[in-house]
Design a protein that fits this description.
Number of helices: 12
Helix content: over 70%
Shape: globular
Structural class: mainly alpha
Distance between the termini: 24 Å
Number of strands: 2
Radius of gyration: 19 Å
């Protein structure tokens, strides 16, 4: 077993251990911790698209919504018909197994949506691709708002509370592992080639569209998983929770952490989750201070707050 697999196995074991005693954590701090884990998954998965492959997607919240609704539909509608009733013993274990299946299914649904968007649009570049993905995110939101079978504008309520520390940070560790191993593999060097010079990459025989679609589908999968975790932690979802501003929030984490810098993006996700909490004591001016801090950080560190190397280099 190589070092990366050992670190992943150790991380999963640690997540399982912490999850075992997570009921002793203050509920407020536990809420912040779970939010950090979900944001890490979203930021690291978007970093594969925006940071390593050099695309500019503004539709990550749309993929998150697809995963959230798909996973919630499986646990809320199909779960009671399949799973044994009860809140102890085998029923709890079966519920957690079903939840794991629902998360993966939600991720696959989001990946399929990513493939659907990526196939026709990833021949576009820069601003044009950003506009297409922005439009996709808004279409998804409007579609869910008008689907009465999933609650329409009111959304889905009464989603089972399955999300815990193990699922959240287990998938966060898995996201980091998959992205890091992909980028540092022989195949993954194609992502960096596409980022650095797409024309030169094509001249060398690299199918740049295939690499961009692969990154898009992988990023969408993990965004869908994050959506499933979000829905089963908040216990209700509605289309407003996956709007344009949610996508911008994730993009800011990637830019602030340094595009193409996984560690920096993780730190930025943690920072931008904690910062609004720290600013709660200035309730009336919280968003003004938050926005001013982001502007100052971008003026002082345009290459990313945690980037020590040239942007785009691994």
């Amino acid at each position: 077993m190589n070092r990366a697999k050992s670190l992943l196995a150790a991380s999963l074991a640690l997540c399982l251990l912490v999850s075992r005693y997570s009921d002793q954590i203050n509920p407020y701090f536990f809420d912040v911790i779970i939010t950090i884990g979900i944001n890490v998954i979203l930021a690291v998965s978007l970093n594969l698209i925006n940071g390593y492959t050099g695309q500019f997607s503004l539709g990550h919240a749309g993929f998150m919504a697809v995963g959230a609704y798909a996973a919630a539909a499986l646990t809320l509608f199909a779960g009671p018909k399949i799973l044994p009733s009860g809140e102890t013993g085998f029923a709890v274990y079966a519920g957690q197994v079903w939840f794991g299946f629902a998360l993966v299914a939600g991720g696959l649904a989001a990946a399929l949506a990513g493939l659907f968007v990526g196939m026709p649009s990833l021949r576009l570049k820069g601003d044009y691709l950003a506009i297409v993905t922005l439009g996709f995110g808004e279409i998804i939101r409007v579609v869910f708002r008008n689907m009465e079978s999933v609650g329409g504008a009111l959304g889905l309520n009464g989603i089972p509370a399955y999300t815990n520390f193990f699922w959240t940070f287990g998938f966060a560790a898995l996201t980091v592992y998959v992205v890091a191993c992909s980028v540092n593999s022989t195949y993954g060097r194609g992502f960096l080639a596409v980022h650095d010079d797409e024309i030169a990459a094509e001249a060398m025989g690299i199918n740049t569209t295939r690499y961009k679609i692969t990154a898009f589908v992988m990023g969408a999968f993990f965004a869908g998983v994050a959506g499933g975790l979000y829905g089963h932690y908040k216990l209700s979802i509605d289309p407003k929770g996956f709007d344009f501003f949610r996508s911008i929030e994730i993009v800011v984490m990637v830019i602030l952490g340094g595009m193409g810098n996984t560690v920096g993006v993780i730190l930025a996700a943690v920072l931008l989750t904690l910062l609004p909490e720290w600013l709660r004591q200035f309730q009336d001016y919280r968003m003004i201070i938050y926005s001013a801090a982001l502007i100052a950080l971008m003026l002082l560190r345009p290459q990313g707050l945690f980037t020590l190397r040239r942007p785009g280099k691994v």
